[in-house]
Design goal:
This protein is 23% helix and 29% strand. It has 17 helices and 48 strands. Strands 20, 21, 25, 26, 27, 28, 29, 30, 31 and 32 form a ten-stranded mixed β-sheet that branches. Strands 10, 12, 15, 17, 18, 23 and 24 form a seven-stranded mixed β-sheet that branches. The chain starts with a helix and ends with a strand. Bound molecules: beta-D-glucopyranose. The site of beta-D-glucopyranose has 11 residues, from helix 6. The site of beta-D-glucopyranose (BGC) has 11 residues, from helix 6.
Length: 949
């Protein structure tokens, strides 16, 4: 009966809502600072929505936002905190809250409605919310607590102290209305209330330049508290704060761990609001007790050991006798360290993988294959006697003899161990404070053949919304796309890393910048980079250069603590500009530009100091280590002059700066950058280009190449990498670009349609070929299955992107086994950008994809392709299929987005849309016939386009 009534009420509400709306246009997917119903700490967070409407060509002419202190108010259409009134604007994102100032802990509700192009009023959205966290440090009562257990680390190869366990009981005397846990750690934490772990997140509070900034997270724990006694518990681990980092051990740096502090610390408080309106705060301070438990060692690189027998039973529940536990140490805060809300999405289990095969390799030893290279952990479910032990070793590949490849882990031990409690049931365990990059797990200590589900693979990644889909009729290419996606998941773990397996896993800036746009097509990476760009800015060197990785711990001399020679490099340092630009462009984010501006202008001044005459001449980057920087890292052909490439990056960054500064109203700066562009181009052409448009260098400057990456092989200006970068960056345009395109084409062709590029050359290679009319060659490269190519990796069984073109070759096997040979390196996945922008043809012509281009490039080798990109303006789809002379395209354009569509025919009469001829359709505008393509403008809607050539 009740349900029927409710249904009636719902219908009535819908009908009455409909009755004042003349159109069905309505906002959906409401987000605040890129998140749905989040905690934020911005006083004027930015709001966004997408639009749905039936019909074609729908757009927003105005919006009205209501923000209220209660749902009841919003239901009455009262915005007691903010009523934007009707704002004439087509903005659907990055609209700043401009209402009353909010109080820390205040939860607000909002909804929005819009008017369409005919000024017809649409439907209200559903109601969403955000809650203001703790915008200032002074809101905090909690202190930093922990326990130095370094003296308990057993003597041995690695210094691995046990995890401190922390606890405290408190009394809740009144009914709770709401409760929030605010939690931050230097190092990693698991937090428990009454025995239950709070949240599904891993690795809080992330990696930052801890001396400048540390993050906190907020959890709604209203339901976790009970009347009477409550127990808070935490386990801490060293993580990035005090654990091993990167290759310090390998390269012999005196300091190999504890780069930021000696032991992990926790700062947590539970803010309670009682039903009677009173408030109480429980927080970490000297009254907390500490002991040790089952986590007897844990480290990102070395792995985790869990002795379940040592678990102090009930330690995180009420009533545990902690008399034997000692007092915690309270550590004073650094007054100049910011404490801020974590901007990104936390790391979580994003996929679970079943075992693909189990193979016995020796007595008690089994090799487990998950069939997929990924980063994360295992979950064990197994029964054994007390004291029995399983040892897990992780690897990405197997040798021909079936043994685990661990040489490429270098000094990362990557071993987990579980010692059984001896429960009557199967014990379930998964590590919390480590992760590995792997596909295979070698398990030792099994007394019998394990069950098929005794292990589950847990893929960890920063939990970012999926944004893209991609599919063709070519299986190799589909697998390649899957490899790119998996490699991104494996390397977007709090920071963008080079690789997840060996003793490295750091935020290499070169890798991040070449891959940046590619990343945006796979996931909604805006919150992730909102964080990392801060890391980058925080890591900037005194001289203005962004570092080669970020965060980058510094020693007492102010040098890189992991390896003092790690400084800056062309192609790496530019990440500070390029990554910021991609967030600005892709997500229409102006605020990130405003916040990064002081750092970016400082960096640009640093670049300019290298190019007093407009060109960065040969040898000018000698001060980097290695000399010239990392160059076209891992290229396989003739080496390209790193200085020549640096010019193309300088031009590109200047161009991006001109655009970004203009957009935020810094016209003087924008004018200055625009002026620089001409200077740089002229300087480059004069210095590096001969009269035929061929790129040349003065090889003599490099002498015998000492100190340069592979300098002994000599450098050239006439390489695929040089032309690809010159074209992509725009430093060469018009006739110059056409000539460069011809040289590039010739170089590819004369090399048997194969690439020679490394990290810096590969990213622009296919886009540059496409841009200069060699789509056929771009297709040859993407479809190649011969060495060196990504297809070669696929046909050799890759499920991820490899670091080197020749990580594995059929004739030579693991060529670089003992050294640097990761099988999960996203840098060469930078081709994803071309796959989305050129093969599918989806690209932004205005910020935030409010104006787009659908221009698929169709050539031989693929007959069918389809995909989509969920932009901040909504989902864009593009597919095409060739049959004989006919091409059928399916295009989906979101509401409020304008698309210029390109149809591969010279004749508009050959094009029909949704069964009608192109020219007869009222919702199509600006139809133009070109020599090879017809263009037309389309608004929102789903279209089937048939081109009958
Ligand atoms: C990393 C790279 C990085 C490089 C610098 C390597 O060890 O794995 O991806 O960019 O060093 O050249």
């Amino acid at each position: 009966m009740k349900r029927v009534k409710l249904l009636w009420l719902l219908c009535f509400t819908l009908i009455s809502m409909q009755s004042w709306a003349n159109t069905d246009i309505r906002p959906v997917y409401l987000r605040t600072e890129y998140k749905v119903n989040p905690f934020v700490e911005e006083s004027s967070p930015r709001l966004s929505w997408e639009l749905r409407a039936s019909g074609f060509n729908q757009s927003q002419q105005a919006y009205r936002i209501l923000v209220a202190s209660s749902i009841a108010n919003l239901n009455k259409h009262i915005g007691d905190l903010w009523d934007s009134e009707k704002v004439e604007s087509n903005a659907t994102n990055q609209v700043s809250y401009q209402g009353k100032a909010l109080q820390p802990g205040q939860k607000v509700y909002w909804k929005v409605k819009v008017w369409n192009a005919k000024n017809e009023e649409g439907l209200w959205s559903t109601i969403n919310s955000w809650e203001l966290a703790k915008p200032t440090k002074s809101e905090w009562t909690a202190e930093w607590i922990g326990k130095d257990l370094n003296h308990l680390a057993p003597k041995g190869e690695y210094h691995l102290p046990p995890s401190p366990y922390l606890r405290k009981e408190v009394k809740v005397t009144k009914p709770v209305k709401s409760a929030r846990l605010y939690i931050s750690s230097l190092g990693l934490h698991n937090f428990y209330i009454n025995g239950e772990k709070i949240g599904k997140d891993y690795f809080g509070s992330g990696w930052t330049e801890y001396n400048k900034r540390v993050y906190y997270n907020v959890y709604d724990v209203s339901k976790n508290l009970q009347q009477g006694n409550n127990a808070f518990g935490a386990i801490l681990s060293s993580g990035w704060y005090s654990g091993y980092l990167a290759y310090a051990l390998l390269v012999g740096t005196p300091q190999v761990d504890r780069f930021y502090g000696n032991f992990p610390l926790l700062k947590a408080q539970v803010d309670v609001e009682y039903a009677d309106g009173t408030k109480e705060v429980f927080y970490t301070d000297k009254t907390w007790k500490t002991g040790v438990g089952a986590v007897i060692e844990s480290d990102f690189l070395q792995g985790e050991t869990h002795d379940a027998r040592k678990d102090p039973k009930g330690w995180n529940k009420v009533g545990f006798d902690d008399n034997q536990w000692s007092a915690v140490e309270v550590v004073a805060d650094k007054s100049d360290r910011a404490l801020e809300m974590y901007p990104s999405n936390p790391v979580r289990v994003v996929k679970e993988l079943p075992i693909k095969s189990i193979k016995k390799i020796a007595d008690g030893k089994y090799m487990i294959d998950f069939g997929q290279n990924f980063a994360g952990n295992i979950r064990l479910k197994h029964k054994a006697k007390a004291g029995e032990k399983l040892v897990f070793r992780f690897g990405e590949m197997l040798h021909i003899d079936g043994k685990l490849v661990t040489e490429n882990l270098r000094r990362a031990r990557a071993i987990d161990t579980y010692i059984f409690r001896g429960d009557a049931q199967a014990e379930v365990w998964s590590p919390s404070f480590t992760f590995h990059g792997f596909q295979f797990v070698e398990v030792s200590g099994l007394k019998e053949e394990p069950k098929a589900d005794f292990l589950t693979g847990l893929a960890l990644s920063s939990d970012l919304e999926t944004a893209g889909t991609f599919k063709t009729d070519n299986d190799m290419l589909n697998q390649l796309y899957s490899n790119i996606v998996w490699t991104q998941l494996a390397n977007y773990i709090d920071i963008p890393t080079d690789c997840p397996q060996r003793d490295e896993r750091i935020g290499w800036t070169g890798d991040a910048q070449v891959y940046m746009r590619s990343a945006t097509f796979n996931n909604d990476v805006a919150p992730f980079h909102k964080k990392w760009i801060k890391d980058l800015n925080d890591s900037q060197w005194e001289n203005g250069a962004y570092p080669v990785y970020a965060p980058i711990p510094k020693n007492d001399k102010g040098l890189a603590a992991i390896r003092p020679s790690d400084t800056y490099s062309p192609g790496w340092s530019e990440a500070g500009i390029i990554c910021t630009y991609e967030i600005f462009k892709g997500y229409n984010d102006h605020r990130i530009v405003e916040e990064s501006l002081p750092y970016m202008t400082k960096f640009m001044a640093f670049l300019k100091s290298k190019a007093p005459q407009g060109a960065m001449v040969e040898g000018i980057w000698e001060d980097a280590t290695p000399k010239g920087g990392f160059g076209d890292w891992l290229s396989v052909g003739q080496k390209t002059s790193p200085d020549l490439v640096a010019n193309t990056y300088y031009y590109y960054c200047t161009k991006l700066m001109a655009e970004m500064t203009r957009a935020i109203g810094k016209d003087q700066l924008a004018d200055a950058y625009t002026k620089d562009l001409e200077l740089i181009r002229a300087g480059f052409k004069k210095h590096y280009m001969d009269e035929n448009g061929k790129l040349k260098i003065d090889e003599k400057v490099y002498g015998n190449g000492d100190g340069y990456v592979e300098g002994q092989n000599g450098f050239s200006g006439h390489t695929q990498t040089a032309y690809a970068n010159a074209i992509y960056s725009g430093i060469l345009d018009g006739e110059d670009a056409i000539k460069a395109g011809q040289f590039l084409r010739d170089l590819v062709q004369s090399n048997g349609d194969k690439l020679t590029t490394g990290f810096l050359g590969f990213k622009p290679l296919l886009p540059a070929l496409s841009k200069t009319g060699s789509v056929d060659k771009a297709y040859k490269l993407i479809l190649s299955e011969e060495y060196p190519s990504l297809g070669y990796e696929v046909v050799n069984g890759a499920t991820s992107i490899w670091e080197r073109w020749d990580s594995f070759t059929k004739d030579k096997g693991f060529v670089h086994n003992a050294a640097m040979n990761s099988f999960s390196h996203y840098a060469f996945g930078s081709v994803n950008e071309w796959m989305f922008q050129n093969l599918l043809g989806i690209s932004a012509t205005a910020n935030g994809y409010s104006e787009i281009q659908i221009k698929p490039e169709i050539s031989s080798g693929i007959n069918e392709a389809s995909g989509s990109y969920h932009s901040i303006s909504g989902k864009i789809s593009s597919s095409w299929k060739k049959t004989g002379n006919k091409i059928v395209q399916h295009i989906e354009i979101p509401v409020n987005v304008k698309a210029t569509c390109y149809f591969p025919t010279a004749n508009a009469s050959k094009v029909s849309i949704n069964g009608k001829s192109l020219n007869s359709l009222s919702y199509v505008s600006n139809v133009k016939e070109g020599a090879e393509q017809v263009t037309a403008e389309l608004g929102s809607g789903k279209y089937e386009v048939v081109i009958n050539n």
